[in-house]
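Re: the 351-residue chain
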Amino acid sequence: MRALTIDAHGGVEQLRYRTDVAAPTLPTSGHVRVRVRAAALNRLDVWTLGGLPGVTITPPWTMGADATGVIAELSADVAADPKGVRVGDRVIVNPGISCRRCEFCAAGEHSLCIRFRLLGEHLPGSFAEELVVPATNVRRIPASLGDDVAAAFTLATLTAWRMCVTRAAVREGDDVLIWGIGGGVSLAALQICKARGARVWVTSSKADKLERARALGADELLDHSAMDVGKEIRARTGKRGVNVVIDSIGERTWEQSLGALARGGRLVTCGGTSGHTLTMDVRKLFWNQWSIMGSTMGNDAEFDAIAAEFAAGRLLPPVDSVFALEDGRAAFERLASGAQFGKVVLRVAET
């Protein structure tokens, strides 16, 4: 089958478009084969390309996490389930694979699974004509929703939903700061927080991204290259600060994030694109009674929630650009440039 692969970690020069990759085997139980129509890039793919500590690959390694497509084949027990998916159903794919047996899975916290793995990072990924995943990792979508938008939806929206809804519990009247508007998670967080009645502050160093965020509902626009964001928010709010900070940048923004956070505020992070080592004054933490939380992907209930939103035509992700699978290197270069606003999509098959 056709796939976008790597044989070794490195830069975009390692990417190989191949036409001879073996199709994945369908297990006898619990799985589905998806004929992939489109897939989307995430920052995770750039990190996987470069190499991640403790993660090994077997060449040719198929890249990619997000995907949408059509069910092509079912394990026997899935086919026998009257409530399950059927051959021909259009689906979105949750790229987080859990064991379904550990104490966290039993408690419904699948992204805390002790064997949690991600497509493209720990398992062969979605940038291919066919993908085999557990049946629990797909949800039906209406025919009215386009492949490019569907491919761009799951990972970023699921991550943002858990951050904003489950972890930070954003509610009506909250002020929320979202760093780095333009990426998939930040844009999904903007839409989710606005839908929940929050006043949303967004940052970027690009004026055009800020204006596009305004069109999506952002209330306050901050050029983080020209100011200390924490001090600016304090000045604009009469020293109060914001209730919630969504920060996936890490080292470069951490101090300003805390500077922006109100007493009793909640900070939630899903990554550290600028670095992984943080320092802080613990006195500020306990005196201000802050809640600082990590968040990764989401569980089945959260996947159900975002799938329902998507089916209703809400939380549709902006798509920045679409590339053919064979032009995968150009797609990676677009994402790595940081110039994108919205998701970068690979078209795998014509509809």
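The chain has a mean pLDDT of 96.
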